[in-house]
């Protein structure tokens, strides 16, 4: 948005799949006016916005939602200083119990005029495509987990639990192949469950390979390679974190990234009393989950194994030094927190918070050396 352009109109849009409610507020003050509800078609929305004057002097805002960013990109392409609003950060009155599309549109126009809205960072189309791929892989992983649980539950009901140490290994697969169920119909059910697991695994493998193939052409590939130099961050974890966060350089301090990921403690303090609770869990849940999973690897002493050394090949010296510094710090921190008797889950969250700080530094270093 060009800060030197004089905004004369503030337009609030309440966007749904089929309709869009429109309201407008004049920059000079006065009541916010309802314009009406139109079809969710770009041509129709554009014809309504043309009535408010030049595009550069008409600011358009709407809430982030399931309709995505197609409308935002169309508005920017046509010269409108548009913005997408974070729904969780919209100021709301505690006693307001009436919600309609038109009221929401008027509220957005009024708050935009007052400058009280928080914009989200809209990803570029290529970045959003990689993010869609990582999220599709997460869905495939969850689907495989469901298929496996269904098979395990079926065998448990029949009194056929696996006695080995680890499931879904080659030994477990050989054991499944030897099973003969007492009834022919149950054998059909068992075979269908096994095939569902195989299909889910093949689906997951295809998406994982598609992600690996798409990364070299991505503008953040160097940053992903830099993050892969850290312990616990393979190609899937690193690409997911960057796809969800975007340009890490927009965070001026690592604490801002920690807050964005919801890894900072909540607080309810009043007067001399300071009361802190669990983490806020705001922001991006996908990146936060990956960080917590990566934090588990720091329960082991600091070392550079063969896989990590291979991922660090051809990386600048500053990347390797930062990775080793993170290992030493986080492994020591993990042991210290565990010695205090904290639950392992709390320890991993604390390590994930500090790991996000190292990711902030690593991403900036990798972007600078790319």
Layout of SSEs?
Blueprint: E1 9-15, E2 19-26, E3 33-39, H1 42-49, E4 58-63, H2 70-77, E5 83-85, H3 101-114, H4 125-157, H5 170-177, H6 184-214, H7 221-227, H8 235-245, H9 254-260, E6 265-267, E7 276-279, H10 285-295, H11 306-311, H12 317-339, H13 344-369
Parallel strand pairs: 1-4, 4-5
Antiparallel strand pairs: 1-2, 2-3, 6-7
Helix pairs in contact: 4-6, 4-8, 7-8, 7-13, 8-10, 9-13, 10-13, 12-13
Account of the 3D structure:
The protein is built from 13 helices and seven strands. With 370 residues, it is α/β, with parallel strands linked by helices. The protein has three domains: 9-114, MutS, connector domain (Nucleotidyltransferase, domain 5), CATH 3.30.420.110; 125-214; 221-369, no CATH class. A hairpin with a 3-residue loop joins strand 1 and strand 2 (19-26).
Q: Compute the number of helices.
A: 13
Q: Please, how many domains? A: 3
Helix and strand succession? EEEHEHEHHHHHHHEEHHHH
Biggest β-sheet description = 5 strands, mixed
- Summarize the amount of helix as a percent range: 40-55%
Strand content bin: 5-15%
Mean pLDDT: 93
CA-atom Rg in angstroms: 26 Å
- What overall geometry do the principal axes of the alpha carbons give? globular
- Which secondary-structure class do the elements indicate? alpha/beta
Number of strands: 7
Low-pLDDT residue intervals, each spanning 5 or more residues: none
Q: How far apart, in Å, are the first and last alpha carbons?
A: 28 Å
């Amino acid at each position: 948005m060009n800060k030197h352009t004089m905004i004369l109109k503030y337009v609030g849009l309440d966007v749904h799949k089929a309709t869009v409610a429109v309201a407008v507020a004049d920059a000079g003050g006065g009541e916010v006016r309802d314009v009406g509800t139109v079809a969710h078609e770009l041509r129709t929305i554009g014809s309504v916005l043309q009535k408010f004057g030049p595009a550069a002097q008409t600011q358009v805002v709407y809430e982030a939602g399931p309709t995505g960013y197609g409308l935002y990109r169309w508005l920017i392409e046509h010269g409108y200083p548009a913005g997408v609003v974070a729904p969780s950060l919209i100021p709301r009155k505690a006693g307001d119990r009436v919600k309609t599309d038109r009221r929401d549109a008027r509220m957005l126009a009024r708050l935009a005029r007052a400058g009280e809205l928080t914009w989200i960072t809209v990803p570029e189309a290529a970045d959003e495509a990689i993010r869609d791929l990582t999220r599709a892989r997460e869905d495939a992983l969850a689907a495989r987990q469901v298929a496996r649980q269904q098979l395990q539950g079926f065998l448990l009901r029949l009194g056929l639990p696996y006695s080995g140490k680890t499931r879904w290994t080659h030994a477990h697969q050989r054991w499944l192949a030897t099973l003969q169920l007492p009834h022919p119909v149950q054998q059909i059910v068992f075979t269908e469950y096994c095939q569902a697991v195989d299909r889910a695994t093949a689906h997951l493998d295809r998406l994982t390979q598609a992600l690996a193939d798409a990364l070299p052409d991505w503008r953040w590939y160097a940053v992903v390679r830099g993050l892969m130099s850290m312990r616990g961050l393979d190609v899937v974890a690193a690409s997911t974190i960057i796809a969800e966060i975007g340009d890490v350089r927009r965070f001026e301090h690592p604490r801002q990234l920690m807050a964005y990921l919801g890894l900072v403690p909540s607080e309810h303090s009043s007067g001399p009393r300071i009361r802190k609770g669990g983490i806020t869990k705001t922001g991006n849940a996908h990146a936060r989950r990956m960080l917590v999973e990566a934090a588990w690897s720091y329960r082991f002493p600091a070392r550079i194994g063969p896989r990590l050394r291979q991922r660090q090949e051809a990386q600048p010296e500053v990347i390797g030094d930062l990775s080793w510094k993170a290992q030493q710090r986080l492994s020591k921190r993990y042991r210290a927190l565990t010695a205090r008797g904290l639950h392992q889950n709390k320890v991993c969250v604390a390590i994930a918070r500090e790991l996000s700080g190292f990711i902030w530094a690593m991403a900036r270093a990798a972007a600078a050396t790319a």
